[in-house]
Amino acid sequence: MGVSAILPIHDEATVLGRVLDAIDRQSWRPDELVCVLDDCRDESEAIVRTRPAKVVRVKVRNTAAALAAGISETSHEILLLFDGNTLVPIDYAARLLEAFETTGADLVEWHGGMMLLPRSTLDRYGPFSRMHLWTLEYFLRVESRGGQVVRLNGPHKRLKRSPLGRNIRYGLDYSALVERYGIAPFFRIGTKSGWIPDLFAAIGTIVGHVKNRRLWRALQALPGAIRDR
Fold first, then answer.
1. Long-range contacts of 128-135 (CB under 8 A, 24+ apart)
2. pTM of the entire structure?
3. Of 66, 133, 205, 220, which residue is 20 to 30 A from 60 by alpha carbon distance?
4. Which DSSP string do the residues of 1-36 spell out, in sequence order?
5. Contact between residue 171 and residue 203 where contact means Cβ atoms under 8 Å apart
6. Are 32 and 5 in contact (CB under 8 A)?
7. What is the pLDDT of residues 45-69, one digit of tens each?
């Protein structure tokens, strides 16, 4: 069964060479690489053109939508997602594939948007949403419908920090997921991107609860969520 790798890119020229090198050095190489250039205005395309990759251009400025465009151009059943500014170890692909074959999971996560899943998972549970927190939404959707998500929490290195304003949007999305899936009412600080980015995400969660008139309900649910951790 073949494996297609997809790499979403938005103005990553300063780090893209290192990311592509990490893909080239994988101990188990995917059968193809699809690079999705999402409204890139730097030298990202020139860098990608030096590698044996299929290039897709979009102007969606949204990671999940860019991935969907890349997936539509892939040739194989198994989809392996990379991140445009994150380094992974040389056994990234091998470990994800091994976990998938061993567990038969619907999706195997490494960290955030880095994962492996068969095309049949998208057919069964639908496409990724366009939320900023699309990864968590998808994991919760799959699990809520009886699917299996295996989380490896593998090592990785972010080469560029996300703008803090994006973490506010993560928090706003998180507040919507609280209502939809009944998860812990507040974003847990110090567990995802670092204390300061997570603090901004927590502020976004509070703003989302206030905006949707759910803050009091969320506060009432907080003691139970703390006990369950």
1. 128/64, 128/67, 128/68, 129/64, 130/62, 130/64, 130/65, 131/64, 131/173, 131/176, 132/166, 132/169, 132/170, 132/172, 132/173, 133/170, 133/173, 133/174, 133/177, 134/63, 134/64, 135/109
2. 0.92
3. 205
4. --EEEEEEESS-HHHHHHHHHHHHT-SS--SEEEEE
5. yes
6. yes
7. 999 999 999 999 999 999 999 999 9
Reading the block at residue 215, the tokens are: 């803050």
Structure tokens given for 15: 């780090």
Over residues 76-102, the pLDDT tens digits come to 999 999 999 999 999 999 999 999 999
Residue 76 CB partners (closer than 8 Å, separation 6+): 1, 2, 3, 4, 31, 32
Q: For the chain, where are the alpha helices, taking DSSP H only?
A: 13-24, 44-48, 63-71, 92-103, 119-125, 134-144, 164-181, 195-211, 215-228
What CA–CA distances, in Å, run from 217 to 136, 198, 206? 22, 22, 12
- Cβ atoms of 5 and 23 closer than 8 Å: yes
Pinpoint the residues of the chain covered by CATH 3.90.550.10.
3-157
- Architecture of the structural domain at 3-157: Alpha-Beta Complex (3.90)
Task: Give the burial string for 45-62 (b: 16+ CB within 10 Å, else e).
Answer: bebbeebebbbbebebeb
Torsion of Cα atoms, 47 then 50 then 52 then 57, to 10°? 40
